[in-house]
Amino acid sequence: MELSGADIFVHCLQDEGVEMVFGYPGGAVLPIYDALYQQDKVQHILVRHEQAATHAADGYARSTGKPGVVLVTSGPGATNAVTGIATAYMDSIPLVVFTGQVPTALIGNDAFQEVDSVGITRPCVKHNFLVKRVEDLAETIKKAFYVATTGRPGPVVVDIPKDVSTQVTEYRYPKRISMRSYNPTVKGHPRQIRKAVELMLEARRPVLYTGGGVVLDKASRALVEFTRLLGFPITNTLMGLGSYPATDRQFLGMLGMHGTYEANMAMHNCDVLVAIGARFDDRVTGNVEKFCPTARIVHVDIDPASISKNVKVDVPIVGAVGQVLREMIKQLKATGRRPDEAALAEWWKQIEEWRAMDCLKYDRDSDQIKPQQVLETLYKVTRGKAYVTSDVGQHQMWAAQFYKFDKPNRWINSGGLGTMGFGFPAAMGVQLAHPDETVVCVTGEGSIQMCIQELSTCLQYGLPVKIVNLNNRYLGMVRQWQEFFYQGRYAMSYMESLPDFVRLAESYGHVGMQITDPADVEPAMKEAMKMKDRLVFMNFLTDPAENVYPMVPAGAGQNEMILV
Amino acid sequence: MENEAGALSRVAGLFSARGYNIESLTVAPTEDPSLSRMTLVTRGTDEVIEQITKQLNKLIDVVKLMDMYEGPHIERELMLIKVRAANGGREEVKRLADIFRGRIVDVTDTLYTVELTGDGEKLDAFIAALPQADIIEVVRSGVTGIARGERALRV
Ligand SMILES: Cc1ncc(C[n+]2csc(CCOP(=O)(O)OP(=O)(O)O)c2C)c(N)n1
Predict the structure, then answer these.
(1) Torsions phi, psi for B88 (to 5 deg)
(2) Do the chains contact at B2 and A181, CB–CB below 8 Å?
(3) In Å, how far from its chain's centre is CA A25?
(4) Is A179's CB within 8 Å of B60's CB?
(5) ipTM value of the model?
(6) Known catalytic membership, residue A396
(7) Is A441 helix (H, G, I), strand (E, B) or coil?
(8) What's the half-sphere exposure (Cβ side, CA atoms, 13 Å) at B149?
(9) Which pLDDT tens digits describe chain A residue by residue (564 residues)?
(10) Beta-carbon contacts of residue A195 (< 8 Å; ≥ 6 apart)
């Protein structure tokens, strides 16, 4: 039977098992919206800004491991989506973003709402397509999902001109697809794995440094088994939190610029570093010249281009981290050997000394609300089980430091691009994917205003997201840098003319709470969490002068932390 | 590479986004019309070349990649050069063209246009040998290359 491009589009999504699309209509996608209207298998979530559509789809993807799907119109619809696409790209999140395009005959004519979507998104997608003929539509959509979800995942844009969605052709959705130019390597080389195992068995001061790749490859179980088997200390990147239980003794906390003292010192002093699904980002390494001066380095990553990009490694292993971990476990067991117990015990003794510095301590007797207290309380009240999204700034770092994630896919933040405005729409995507779970958005008064309009979306779909606004009246992270590195010249970092967030939430039909006294933090939060089916906006007025510690200043080595 | 619209800009975009430098670039369809072959000349340390290789391989449109410098190979570039050739100079240009095995492909009363192929150095040498003031226009195709012996870039 012949179908229109728009109907083909809808069939493809159904056949791909897509349950939800985040989007916003407009001229170029009217035929597609008309087709969506006439079915009920794929739910469409109407956001209030296309940026939020991409972040919501992203949150959906990060919390489920399934690709997020977005549909926006041409021109401004597409450009509004770019921030979210770039955010997903930097964190390797599988998204398929459909953009409408002007009719093929008008492309290149500066037509109304025309923009070169493929050109604009090229540097921030894994791949993109312009569909020129309706005959190519189904196969292109199949390819888009295939590319987005395999290998190192990432966003894929499919640009669909309006006439392609009205033309008709025979529909057939390919079951499988292969592309001669795309063969994501998955299996680690056994000989390299043997070398790595040998190195680990010889190690006297080892550290495991693992990242978002473990979450993306759903390899958390294997990582836990591997880590326990070796008895090595482990640290996670900002993106890797939750892939190893934070409450476990072997866990040193997050590393990097605002990582723990013990994690960064262990990195700096280790003799064998095993990096798994992490990419030696500059926020992790600090000054690369001073990075891990005494270590031999193993690096496991699915993307060969990540290996030896920033830091030269000794044993590169290209492969999916889950498979490589399982193979390492097998080989380790087969050797019957154990790492040097005495050396390890000595190493742990040293690490415990670093840990005893208690680098995350803060003033618990202040008469102002300390942001750390709010996060600790959040952890306690939600019993560590919430899905926590965050925006970007100090609150993000405090959330990463103080909420102990024991499971993967629970901590959702924009690590690579650092996109303010991400947290709240991402929380909507998480909540839609997990209607019965507690979903919290930790944010600041700066970030939340970047996608505040989504309060309306939450009302429409009954999304009971809990917003924890750490309102310090400052773009806190900017203020902190100005205090440290610009002699306290606070240029444009004070947030004046803030709205009354309580009444703002109420005007959108939600519950607003204002918390100003440290003693009220816990009761207020408990009360908010009891409102299972309401969005609650908790506006905590926190100490405006609080800084995030510890800190590795830019240009310093990991052992050169500012402690308090 | 896949012979698709956009493939070239993906490569060019990669080089500019990551700060690599393109010295020359040639591209044309192959005997298989679904594929085109690109020869790109760039410069860098071993680490940079390794990164470039990996990043190029990551592009979905890149089917296969070969670093010519990993083995013996032949490099060729085509140059067309328009030179003032009047009176006494005429003989001199012709003589130089002969020495470099160039061909004169267009003639006027006062000009010669010489066609010359070879590796980059040979073309540079020819340009240097001409009286500089007489050179009117130079057009170079950029380098293409092929490996010697059994080594071949095939899909
Ligand atoms: C879209 C965007 N613009 C600017 C920045 C730079 N930036 C990083 S943190 C920050 C301040 C964030 O302030 P707020 O949301 O109030 O959080 P706080 O640091 O106070 O916790 C800014 C402006 C950014 N990360 N993203």
Answers:
(1) -65, -30
(2) yes
(3) 26
(4) yes
(5) 0.92
(6) no
(7) strand
(8) 5
(9) 899 999 999 999 999 999 999 999 999 999 999 999 999 999 999 999 999 999 999 999 999 999 999 999 999 999 999 999 999 999 999 999 999 999 999 999 999 999 999 999 999 999 999 999 999 999 999 999 999 999 999 999 999 999 999 999 999 999 999 999 998 878 999 999 999 999 999 999 999 999 999 999 999 999 999 999 999 999 999 999 999 999 999 999 999 999 999 999 999 999 999 999 999 999 999 999 999 999 999 999 999 999 999 999 999 999 999 999 999 999 999 999 999 999 999 999 999 999 999 999 999 999 999 999 999 999 999 999 999 999 999 999 999 999 999 999 999 999 999 999 999 999 999 999 999 999 999 999 999 999 999 999 999 999 999 999 999 999 999 999 999 999 999 999 998 899 999 999 999 999 999 999 999 999 999 999 999 999 999 999 999 999 999 999 988 999 999 997
(10) A315
H/E element holding A387?
strand A387-390
Residue A253 and residue A359: Cα distance in Å, rounded? 11
CA of A421 to the centre of ligand 1 (A): 9
Instruction: Number of A to B CB contacts under 8 A, please give it.
Output: 37
Q: How many CB atoms lie within 10 A of CB A395?
A: 31
Please indicate whether, in this complex, the C-beta atoms of A122 and B5 are within 8 angstroms of each other. Answer: no
Distance CA A235, CA A251 (A): 6
In this structure, what DSSP letter does residue A311 have? S
- What's the rounded Cα separation, in Å, for the pair A98 and A104? 16
- Amino acid at site A307: I
How far does the centroid of ligand 1 lie from the alpha carbon of residue A561, in Å?
Answer: 22
Out of B13, B58, B61, closest to residue A305 by CB: B58
User: What gap in Å lies between CA A258 and CA B74, rounded to an integer?
Assistant: 53
Domains and CATH numbers, chain B: 7-65 (3.30.70.260), 73-144 (3.30.70.1150)
Is position A477 annotated as part of the catalytic site? yes
Query: In the structure, how many helices (H) and strands (E) does chain B have?
Result: 4, 7
Q: Are strands B103-107 and B36-41 parallel, antiparallel or unpaired?
A: unpaired
Cα(A126)–Cα(A142) distance, rounded to whole angstroms?
Answer: 15
The shortest CB-CB distance from B51 to any of A119, A123, A305 is to A305
Contact B63 A123 (CB under 8 A): no
Which residues, other chains included, contact A456 with Cβ-Cβ below 8 Å and sequence gap of 6+?
A: A48, A508
Task: For residue B134, give both structure tokens.
Answer: 């007489």
Q: List strand residue ranges (DSSP E) for A90-148, in order.
A: 95-101, 127-130
Q: What distance, in Å, lies between the first and last C-alpha atoms of chain A? A: 70
Q: Is A113 a catalytic residue?
A: yes
User: Reduced to 3 states, what is the DSSP secondary structure of residue A34?
Assistant: helix
Written as one letter, the residue type at A544 is P
Of A127, A304, A307, the CB nearest to B60: A127
Tell me how far apart the terminal alpha carbons of chain B are, to the nearest angstrom: 10
Q: For residue B121, count other CB atoms closer than 10 A to its CB.
A: 10
Closest to A81 (Cα-Cα) out of A4, A155, A191, A167: A155
Contacts of A158 in chain B (CB under 8 A): none
- Threshold 0.90, pTM exceeds: yes
Establish if B60 touches chain A: CB-CB under 8 angstroms: yes
